[in-house]
Design brief:
By secondary structure, the protein is of the alpha+beta class. It has four domains: about 180 residues, Up-down Bundle (Multidrug efflux transporter AcrB transmembrane fold); about 90 residues, Alpha-Beta Plaits (2-Layer Sandwich); about 190 residues, Multidrug efflux transporter AcrB transmembrane fold, CATH 1.20.1640.10; about 120 residues, Transcriptional regulatory protein pf0864 domain like (Alpha-Beta Plaits), CATH 3.30.70. Helices cover about 65% and strands about 10% of the residues. It is built from 25 helices and 13 strands. A hairpin with a 2-residue loop joins strand 4 and strand 5. Helix 8 packs antiparallel against helix 11, helix 10 runs antiparallel to helix 11 and helix 21 runs parallel beside helix 23.
Length: about 700
């Protein structure tokens, strides 16, 4: 490491210009990143809904209806005219309305009222559109809105994707614009120079930009990854830069020449910073083992981001610091963070009550965080937006419309007819469109034009289009999907049936993610435990550290349960690994200082001194991480991102509080066990207390 540090110092100017070139290239590459807004595409390939969608794509050109348009009409002729206009749009593959299911020559009063009101109610005609894939949804939505005008109402996939695209592109820029000044202010209050925070932000921002550019080499990244990865990378890796530059300042204060001071700072900082980074990397990599692909997508980008930031800190920061150390000296000021002397004495005075309280809180917190109600879809719009108003209007008028498609073996007309009757009898079902009830089982398929039968009949399957009054996501949504699968399985016990739809996707998502949770959490804890164990060469220290941070995680994730609110699944999965991996760094730093102090003082004095020496180092990165989370929560209009930010912001503060208050007291209580289970650790014998006259 000494040689490498020497090379870094020697070639500092070359390194500086290499990073400038890398950043320019990365900015260009970042603009080429393809963003995936379809969460369903991350389901495992063997999920029933994934297989159903693939089979439907093989057999039929037309997809399931995915967009609804409501338009005011005075009569049926106006409705049919609007249907023709909608059908003429280039991006509309198929359109369903009442005339596809009912004979409009017969008075509407003589038809099933449930079917009629599914397409025409309160003088509003509701059209079911199938929008083509691989289109520019922004332009398509503008064209659709121009056609229907202000009196038309639109909801569905085209609105959702357009909304998320605008949100990711505009809101993430806004979050970064607020995040960078906020982080600068926090750093200005906690560092020893007015210039240091600027160096920190330049270095970490360089790492973020390079990582964003590397995303272009992947086929695509999820919109969640695109929305949160940069902010999280900036927040979790800031302390690496702080630690290195503080070491550089300490050696310079000792009178060492700048180049040698930096060389020694790199050597001394590498092991602890590398250990901290590894815990974070392994926490993120645990997400890769999710069967739900969003975990792999997010985990790889975040883990790579930490590694990129680590490299950037040890290569670019020394270059910048050595090029600007004279300015650092001229802008030096005293730290504005207090000494924490009074706080440390109060905390250590109540060590036993704090440990007991933690044990008492741990049980309900653990149970609560495992009992949450999760949301898997997370669709939402700002209340004052057209998308929000249109969705609310159509919901009030027509209720919830869940579009599904069912494939059954072609030619078994009697079975298909009985199945359709049973499906129509379901209380939620508004519309069931299949060959046997639209055309008639007695009409030979070969006698009909291709245009008429292609949406319903393929070479091997009959397709039945279902529309049900079912919300986007609720227990009833999952129950309906399970019930429909049971009905179909009973009708076709030999199988070869395929059911696709948003509710079926959500059901598979729920099943997959519930399985993932245990694996991801277990792997994250195991990996971090092993890194800490190898770093400290101890058995008890990793137990103490992991339990400390896990308690903060449990408390954080149990709050939604105890407040009766639902939690987005991605918030649970990400926070359970991110909060553990990112904030265990604070625990590692505190533990290292405690062990150092125990070489020269008793355990109580060591606890007091540890809080005083560590608090100023862990508060800034924790507040930066919390600020990043709350900015996501306050600015983003994407529900999944908002909830992730909210839980992250709260979790960072909880971890900070528990590390400052609980961890030093746990180290105090387990002091003897730590000494006995740590390789070659010899601590100063504790001072005898007046009460016992012997050792504690």
């Amino acid at each position: 490491m000494n040689k490498l540090a020497g090379y870094i110092v020697k070639f500092r100017v070359v390194i500086f210009f290499i990073f400038i070139a890398l950043m320019v290239v990365s900015v260009f590459l970042a603009m080429k990143v393809k963003v995936n807004f379809d969460l369903a595409s991350y389901l495992p390939k063997d999920a029933p809904s994934t297989i159903a969608v693939e089979k439907m794509g093989e057999e039929f050109k037309e997809s399931v209806p995915n967009t609804e348009v409501g338009y005011p009409v005075d009569n049926l002729a106006e409705a049919l005219e609007m249907k023709e206009k909608l059908q003429s749009l280039d991006f509309v593959d198929e359109i369903l309305w009442m005339d596809d299911q009912l004979d409009l020559a017969v008075p509407l009063d003589l038809h099933d009222n449930k079917i009629v009101e599914g397409f025409l109610k309160d003088d509003i005609a509701l059209f079911q559109l199938t929008i083509a894939d691989d289109i520019d949804v922004q332009e398509a939505l503008i064209e659709l809105e121009e056609l229907v005008g202000e009196e038309g109402r639109i909801r569905g996939e085209i609105v959702e994707q357009s909304f998320m695209q605008r949100a990711v592109s505009s809101e993430m820029t806004m979050i970064a614009a607020v995040m960078i000044p906020a982080a600068l202010i926090i750093l200005l209050l906690s560092t020893r120079s007015w210039l240091e925070p600027i160096l920190f932000m330049l270095v970490i921002s360089a790492g973020v930009i390079i990582n964003m550019g590397l995303n272009s080499f992947a086929a695509d990244v999820s919109f969640i990854t695109q929305a949160v990865s940069s902010v999280l990378q900036l927040a979790v890796s800031m302390d690496y830069a702080i630690f290195l530059l503080h070491r550089f300042g300490d050696y310079r204060a000792a009178g060492i020449e700048p180049k040698e001071a930096m060389r020694q700072a790199i050597v001394k900082s590498f092991a602890p910073v590398n250990a901290s980074a590894l815990t974070t990397v392994f926490g993120f990599l645990a997400l890769v083992f999710m069967r739900f692909g969003i975990g792999k997508d997010l985990g790889l980008v975040l883990a790579r981001g930490v590694i990129v930031s680590l490299i950037t800190v040890f290569l670019l920061l020394p270059s910048l610091a050595l090029l600007s150390y004279k300015l650092i000296d001229k802008t030096t000021h005293r730290s504005l963070i207090p000494s924490f002397k009074g706080f440390s004495r109060v905390v250590t005075r109540i060590a036993i009550p704090i440990v007991v309280l933690a044990l008492v809180v741990a049980v309900p917190a653990y149970i609560g965080q495992r009992s949450n109600d999760f949301l898997y879809g997370g669709r939402s719009y700002p209340e004052d937006s057209r998308a929000g108003n249109d969705a609310a209007f159509l919901k009030d008028t027509f209720g919830d419309n869940m579009q599904m498609a069912l494939l059954v073996p072609k030619g078994e007309w009697a079975t298909e007819q009985e199945l359709i009757k049973e499906l129509e009898a379901q209380p939620e079902m508004k519309s069931v469109i299949g060959y046997v009830n639209m055309v008639g089982a007695g009409v030979p398929v070969d006698l009909l034009p291709e245009r008429m039968i292609s949406p319903l009949i393929s070479e091997h399957y009959s397709r039945i289009v279902l529309i049900a009054d079912s919300p986007d996501e609720s227990p009833e949504t999952f129950e309906l999907a399970e019930r429909l699968r049971t009905i179909v399985d009973n009708a076709y016990p030999e199988g070869d049936t395929y059911l696709a739809g948003a509710n079926v996707v959500l059901l598979d998502m729920k099943t997959t993610i519930n399985h993932d949770m245990t694996i991801v959490n277990g792997l994250a804890i195991l990996a971090i435990f092993l890194v800490i164990m190898l770093t400290f060469r101890s058995l008890v220290i990793p137990i103490v550290l992991v339990l400390t941070i896990e308690l903060a995680v449990w408390i954080n994730l149990s709050i939604p349960y105890f407040t009766g609110t639902s939690l987005a699944f991605i918030g649970y999965l990400v926070i359970s690994t991110v909060q553990l991996g990112a904030t265990v760094d604070y625990g590692i730093l505190m533990t290292q200082h405690y062990l150092d102090h125990r070489q020269v003082m008793g355990r109580k004095e060591a606890s007091i001194k540890t809080i005083q020496s560590v608090a100023g180092s862990i508060i800034p990165p924790a507040i930066i991480l919390s600020t990043a989370g709350y900015l996501l929560y306050l600015i983003s209009s994407i529900q999944v991102v908002k909830e992730l930010g909210h839980v992250l912001g709260r979790g960072a503060l909880l971890s900070l509080l528990i590390v400052l208050i609980l961890l030093p007291n746990l180290l105090y209580v387990t002091d003897r066990a730590i000494e006995k289970t740590t390789w070659k650790l010899r601590m100063l014998p504790d001072r005898p207390t007046k009460k016992s006259g012997g050792k504690n």
